[in-house]
Design a protein that fits this description.
Layout lengths: L2 H16 L4 H23 L6 H20 L12 H9 L1 H7 L1 E3 L2 E3 L1 H18 L3 H26 L6 E5 L5 H12 L3 E8 L5 E7 L7 H10 L4 E6 L7 H8 L10 H6 L12
Antiparallel strand pairs: 1-2, 3-5, 3-6, 4-5
Length: about 280
């Protein structure tokens, strides 16, 4: 029995089904797997459900579509568009991105993960058409954006970590009373934004000129919460509706002697008393 003849016949019989085994195209698939897997690992480290495997699958699928559009069945058309299938990948990837985005009230999460999934599709397409160097460079730039620029963004936002969110009831004079109270207490206001709250209530977003001292935060919250029209006060970094957090803040030792005008005002129990009578 001539095994070489049998193998040759079998290969010739299966060629219409499997085509030529192109090591270059297979290598592009593996490169896409590695590059998209690196981005997926970064998202998984942030405990995102659309993390490691979804990014790999998106990249592999996009790579396949790009290679199929660029190399498959050239005999069927003399005017074929090699990027037509890839363009459908870019437009169709939106359903995964939409699934990664969550909205809770005025907070939106998952935009970065959705964008990274879209980028994974781009890496797959770029790898599939043979631009492995460009895909590798793009991967490093994406990681730079996800890792290092995130740290820079957090450092820039740190100065606003004590900005106030004041939740008001539906008192028609609530906004005016709150601004009067903040002015009396000496709060360093830079900008005030009013946002819609649940029902008929509203949320005042108070951006400060500078962060408050640690011992001033619980004192300020205590003073504001004595007003009947204020339901809750928190900051970007702390939620004072959490009793454990608030009790921990209250244990911070305040200086025996107030060291600025705001400290003195925060210790005045009667400073805001008349605002509850109006």
């Amino acid at each position: 029995m001539d095994f070489q003849h049998i193998a040759s016949s079998l290969s010739h019989s299966l060629e219409p089904i499997f085509g030529d085994f192109d090591e270059v195209l297979i290598g592009r698939l593996f490169l896409s797997l590695i590059l998209c897997g690196i981005i997926g690992l970064e998202r998984s480290n942030h405990e995102r459900s659309s993390g490691f495997r979804p990014h790999i699958l998106v990249g592999l699928g996009a790579c396949l579509m790009a290679m199929a559009g660029a190399y498959a069945l050239p005999e069927f058309s003399n005017t074929r568009d090699p990027m037509r299938l890839a363009s459908y990948v870019v437009s169709g990837i939106g359903f995964l991105g939409a699934g990664a985005i969550l909205r809770h009230g005025t907070t939106v999460r998952g935009l970065t993960t959705a964008a990274s999934i879209w980028c994974a599709a781009g890496i797959g397409i770029t790898t599939g058409v043979g631009m492995g160097g460009l895909a590798t460079t793009a991967t490093f730039l994406i990681l730079f954006t996800l890792v290092f620029l995130e740290r820079l963004e957090k450092r820039m936002d740190r100065k606003h970590e004590n900005d106030l969110n004041i939740y008001l009831n539906n008192d028609s004079k609530a906004v005016g009373k709150t601004l009067v109270a903040l002015n009396r207490l000496g709060v360093p206001i830079k900008k005030v934004t009013m946002l819609p709250g649940p029902g008929m209530s509203a949320v005042l977003r108070i951006e400060l000129n500078h962060s408050l001292k640690a011992q001033q935060i619980p004192l300020l919250v205590n003073r504001l919460m004595t007003l009947k029209h204020i339901e809750q006060v928190d900051t970007d970094s702390l939620n004072f509706d959490d009793e454990a957090v608030f009790q921990k803040l209250k244990t911070i030792e305040a200086p025996l002697e107030p060291d600025d005008d705001m400290d003195i005002k925060l210790r005045d129990d009667m400073l805001l008393h008349d605002l509850n009578e109006k």
